[in-house]
């Protein structure tokens, strides 16, 4: 049985003053029966981890380089994220794949680097709108999974997030049947490679998750939580999503 995770991705949003949102989450985190994770910009990882103090709140990065160090201006290594207090890192987000041309091979190398640094890698997959319209969603997701997860990665070290690109930040979501279809497919693809251990890999849905749709999404088969963008920036919204997952 996979752990339940409510993960927030602040993307390129937030300055130190916004860390008051962490204090405001304290009650929701204390009452949660799921893991709660926030992935702020790299500049806020250390102060957020310090702010989290004794709260049961994990802090993560949004990307990492495959190399441990070296001449990679503007990049950050998995070890640096861990050094700043991160326990997780998002890899292969569609915004990284689109903005930085990251391929499945790049993502697999980042996953290996993350695991080597002691981080849990949250591996993102998902189809574009054109791919959904062309009815190739399941193939696209299967090939992203096959290419982005290194064969040696243990289930305890990885999380998979299904994020349809067209649902990110748009207010649009797939139908519950469509989410179930993809999550069931991801579970069976993982099981084909890893057998029963695949059941331990948390599968998160991401794309316009809000307090108002969280309850129904968390009731879908093989949805173990969410990777939340916009609604993770405000403690009141993210708190509602954490409560919905805890009750699921
Ligand atoms: O990583 C998070 C996702 O891209 C979802 O973003 P969103 O909740 O703003 O649609």
- Total individual domains: 1
Question: By helix and strand content, what is the structural category?
Answer: alpha/beta
Return residue spans where pLDDT drops below 50 for at least 5 consecutive residues. none
State the shape: globular
Give the CATH topology.
TIM Barrel
Biggest sheet, strands in spatial order? 1-2-3-4-5-6-7-8
| Separation of the first and last Cα atoms | 14 Å
Ligand inventory reads: glyceraldehyde-3-phosphate
Name of the CATH class: Alpha Beta
- Portion of residues in beta strands equals 15-25%
Number of strands: 8
CATH superfamily: Aldolase class I
Average per-residue pLDDT, rounded, comes to 96
In DSSP terms, counting alpha (H) and pi (I) runs of 4 or more, how many helices? Answer: 11
Radius of gyration: 17 Å
Share of residues in helices: 40-55%
Tell me the CATH architecture: Alpha-Beta Barrel
Order of helices and strands: EHHEHEHEHHEHHEHEHEH
The biggest beta sheet is recorded as: 8 strands, parallel, barrel
Subcellular location: Cytoplasm
Catalytic activity: L-erythrulose 1-phosphate = D-erythrulose 4-phosphate; D-glyceraldehyde 3-phosphate = dihydroxyacetone phosphate
GO molecular function: triose-phosphate isomerase activity
Protein name: Triosephosphate isomerase
């Amino acid at each position: 049985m996979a752990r339940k995770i409510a993960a927030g991705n602040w993307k390129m949003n937030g300055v130190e003053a916004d860390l008051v949102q962490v204090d405001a989450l304290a009650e929701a985190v204390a009452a949660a029966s799921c893991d709660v994770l926030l992935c702020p910009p790299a500049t806020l990882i250390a102060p957020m981890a310090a702010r989290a103090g004794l709260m049961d709140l994990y802090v993560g990065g949004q990307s990492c380089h495959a190399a441990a160090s070296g001449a990679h201006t503007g990049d950050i290594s998995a070890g640096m994220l861990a050094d700043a207090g991160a326990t997780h890192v998002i890899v292969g987000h569609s915004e990284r794949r689109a903005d930085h041309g990251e391929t499945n091979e790049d993502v697999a190398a980042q996953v290996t680097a993350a695991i080597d640094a002691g981080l849990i890698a949250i591996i993102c997959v998902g189809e574009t709108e054109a791919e959904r319209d062309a009815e190739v969603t399941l193939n696209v997701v299967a090939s992203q999974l096959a290419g982005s997860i290194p064969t040696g990665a243990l289930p305890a070290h990885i999380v998979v997030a299904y994020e349809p690109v067209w649902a990110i930040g748009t207010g649009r979501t797939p139908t519950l049947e469509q989410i179930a279809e993809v999550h069931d497919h991801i579970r069976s693809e993982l099981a084909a490679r890893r057998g029963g251990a695949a059941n331990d890999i948390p599968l998160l849905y991401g794309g316009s998750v809000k307090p108002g749709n969280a309850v129904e999404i968390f009731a879908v088969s093989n949805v173990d939580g969410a990777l939340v963008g916009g609604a993770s920036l405000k403690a009141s919204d993210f708190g509602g999503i954490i409560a919905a997952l805890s009750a699921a």
